[in-house]
Amino acid sequence: MIPFIDLKKQYNLIRDDVIAGIDRVLESGHYILGEEVGELDRQLAEYTGVRYALSCSSGTDALSMALMALEIGPGDAVFTTPFTFFATPETVALTGATPVFADIDEKTYNLDPVKLEEAIEKVIKEGKLKPKCIIPVDLFGQCADYAAIRVIADKYSLKIVQDACQAFGAKDPSGKVAPSHGDIGCTSFFPAKPLGCYGDGGAVFTDDEELYKKMYSILVHGRSAEDKYDNERIGLNARLDTIQAAVLLAKLKLFPGEVEKRQTVAQAYMEELAGLVSLPVIQPGNLSVWAQFCPRSAKFAAIQEALKQNDIPSARYYPIPMHLLKAMKYLGYKEGDFPVTEACAKDIFALPMHPYLDREIIHKIATVIASVVG
Ligand SMILES: *Cc1c(COP(=O)(O)O)cnc(C)c1O
To answer: Does one domain contain both 226 and 341?
Structure first.
């Protein structure tokens, strides 16, 4: 079986650096908030062009920290996409706020700004919830339409929490690097993400000093700036391990080159699969980091079966839209509420995607797919 994401090939390139980094942490004895964590935060801020980056224990905790810092809670409406990973609406629900979904754009799979504004208007008209925040998700590595979403956020005085858990390093037409597009940006360093560590990890990003200070406090049980035993708010234990910070410092050196390589791989897929499946669309001016390569086809099940026969793995992101999940049932949505999302969920599938994928294998994948749909 060829790997869906080849982390071993990457490891072979950075092995010495990773082992030396981990050894340094083990020798230092500073396993929690060691020197590497501060250095990583500095490099993450520099890479994305934000004033403050703060690494944490996962993308999920990054979202929680962001929502807690914005004091989102019961009675608040948080607008997001139903076509995402569950952590997005889950963290909203954890604060006691209500996730409110708006349908996606068929081409980019990201939040449709027109539908978003309709959803906000509806909540205002109903008068039960207070619109507070938008969480656009940069699905599969491509930025949402932040130019349009920012206009809407300003019009209704809403904050933007960018869920760039799949899109660290992506760019939108403004040239800004994800996750620098929101009031707070969140990313994940889960191993399979474009920039992953060897365990769980994540980070929050902001230009706002006050929000940064709040998140710094939330990261460590709501500590005060001066004294960690003087707790001034309810927080979390959401620190990134020093060992994972060392791993990420090694991987960051490789990352810009890997983003380039991902473009080559995606382009090869685009060429090889043209006319066979419905291809993902990258909007002009966007640079995707191609966390996933997800085409659509009515014959996806037969394609997946044929790929499996040829020892080629595939996956499906995401077969069940958020509004139809059992855990979200209490929100009262039903099938038919978000037709674009529901149609996508029915026939989207994911092919192997990583920087070290050979053209040969991509050609083989295309040949197998052609044998099914041709
Ligand atoms: C992976 C992911 C998360 C959660 O990140 P973890 O590090 O796994 O907690 C949140 N949102 C999206 C869109 C993701 O893909």
So the answer is: no
